[in-house]
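Quick question, first post here. What does this chain look like in 3D?
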Amino acid sequence: MESAASKSAQLTANAAEDLPAGALQAKLELAEREGRPLRVKLGLDPTAPDIHLGHTVVLTKLREFQDQGHRVVLIVGDYTARVGDPSGRSETRPVLSPEAIIANAQSYEAQAGRILDQNPERYELRYNSEWLDMPMAELLALVRTTTVAQLLEREDFSTRYKGGSPISVLELLYPLMQGYDSVAIEADVEIGGTDQTFNILLGRDIQRHYGIAEQAVLTMPILVGIDGVEKMSKTKGNEIAIESSADEMFGRTMRLPDEAMASWFELLAIAPPADGTGARDSKVALAKAIVMRFHDEAAADAAEAQFVSQFAKHELPDEIDEFSFAASDGVVHLPQALAEGFGISRSEARRLVEQGGVKIDGEAVDPAHLDVDSGLLSGSVVQIGRRRFKRFMIDR
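> Answer (accepted):
Ran it through. Tokens below.
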């Protein structure tokens, strides 16, 4: 029989931290003695309808726990979404409507099922509105577990407070609400990104106040987006949604900078190619593996063929003129850049985008996203129609 130490080593292999040190192994040993599976928690706030590859890092870790026989508890934060996770924010997050929260939650449930085993013995889906819609007396009992000084130890809260940026009392409640989730479901382990470390550790304190055994904490590194710099985020436009087409998945992966590939192989649990494989072939292997995970082998082969046809078989000119542009606050307004780069009017640029006549690295521009991260746009081939090309570069 495999030892708890060996199982712990497997589960922590690509994790950032196992907190407190050795806590996970102790939980595994306890589960063996008691003859029960661990309850492993992951909370997801439905602030957007799509799950992207960044989310799959922690979802895949949950699946590893399931494969060892444990029960994962996926908490859809339909109630905490009314607050909005302030992690990493420099300002108050806009509050979503109840209708948007419900729609996003349903989307999350369906998409998470593509990664997790939804056998009831290994899977439990909960909505935290079950317990967070609490009477005032219970809320007062919860807020008594934590001091304002503790909350201001969070780096983002501390930075905003010192800088004079407002912090709403509602936001201060968020870590307490997340911690109470662990009380409600009696979590043995909680998983989250490194940006959630404070919240998850606070959950241990809150469990202790309620007389619940404190959870072990396993944090996962943050997956950078296709720009190779920023955290993957739909807001940044650097994401790959797991529901996107095979061609889009492949093409966007091929935009990943070479230096970011190693972290993607590791965090997405994809076996890297053999030593000595060139950067381009390695990236193709990565792109195909991602497409195969969410589509199938035939789709991956077709996506590769489409990419090669467009970018390798001279469908692009041998020489492409460069257009250097300035970026205000790291953002480029695409119609303006197109107007300046191609010598057309802004209205013409907008019309071309709306008609699907503008592509960036072979992908049609979404008319709803005309403000583009300059880091993503720089170095890309911008195409208007069938024969007009420019390589956009940041003017440094």
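The longest helix spans residues 169-185.
The chain has a mean pLDDT of 87.
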